[in-house]
Amino acid sequence: MGEKQFHIQCGPGDVGRYCILPGDPGRCEQIAAHLTDAKCIASNREYVTYTGLLDGVPVSVVSTGIGGPSAAIAMEELVALGADTFIRVGSCGGIDLAVEGGDCVIATAAVRQEGTSREYAPLAFPAVADFVVTQALASAANRNAHIGVIQSKDSFYGQHNPESMATSEALNEQWSAWKKLGVLASEMECAALFTVAATRRVRCGAVLQVFWNQERRAEGLEDETCTDCEVAIKICIDALKLLIDSEQGL
To answer: What is the DSSP string of 126-175?
Structure first.
């Protein structure tokens, strides 16, 4: 009792029930600026933690690093400290041609093309976002976001340079399947976070900023590059306000 969690270096009382999970530690301060009286609680490895107030309720911002393993560790340790509601705010690359650079995507579920979730649940179990959190994100976006299934993978360069891999045939075949199935975008953490959340019986949703869409560019379609996540951050903050307002006193 009272000891700090090994990786995030936070202890009891350091984090709120509601947690925002960016991947990039450098994005934590940008997100924390939307909170009142936010303070940096801890910084260790890829894990940077800020806690402040949103509508008078403690909310924490905790970076997870890149990929499922470090994201799962962050969620496990935050759950151990009492957190139960999580929103991933991150970046992604578009897959579906309707998704353009600069758009936002709200994930309803994630293709489990990564390894972390396999140590939590059999592959037959779907990586699904929490409905209430997703509904709040959709309301906050006010139709200014794509909503649907995304893909999570472990290898960034397996996506962007599959021909250099010994597994290129399998990677290209799977990518083709995701396109045919209308998968909206690709990223690296959601499948793990959704599956850990299901295992620990907590809630997790995700809103992602589309940096670019390689498929649009391959088709010669217009596609801008956008690496500022402020729009996705604003959707997350507004969604948390909706959740906090509806759950005050519960």
So the answer is: -EE--HHHHHHHHHHHTT-SEEEEEEEES-HHHHH-GGGSTTHHHHHHHH
Pairing of strands 85-94, 104-113: unpaired
| pTM, to two decimals | 0.97
**CA-only gyration radius of the chain, Å:** 17
3-class SS letters over 6-42: CCCCCCCCCCCCEEEECCCHHHHHHHHCCCEEEEEEE
What are the angstrom distances between the C-alpha of 40 and each of 25, 29, 62, 212, 225? 12, 8, 10, 31, 30
Per-residue model confidence (pLDDT) at position 250: 59
- Look at residue 248 and tell me whether its pLDDT is greater than 90: no
CB 30 within 8 A of CB 233: yes
Residue with tokens 């399947």: 177
Q: Which two tokens stand for residue 77?
A: 């340790």
Average pLDDT of the chain, as a whole number? 97
CA gap 25, 29 in Å, rounded: 8
Q: What's the rounded Cα separation, in Å, for the pair 179 and 20? A: 29
CA distance 196 to 121: 9
Cα angle, residue 203 at apex, residues 61 and 210 outer, rounded to 5°:
60
DSSP category for residue 119: G
Say which DSSP state 4 is in: P
Q: Which two tokens stand for residue 1?
A: 């009792």
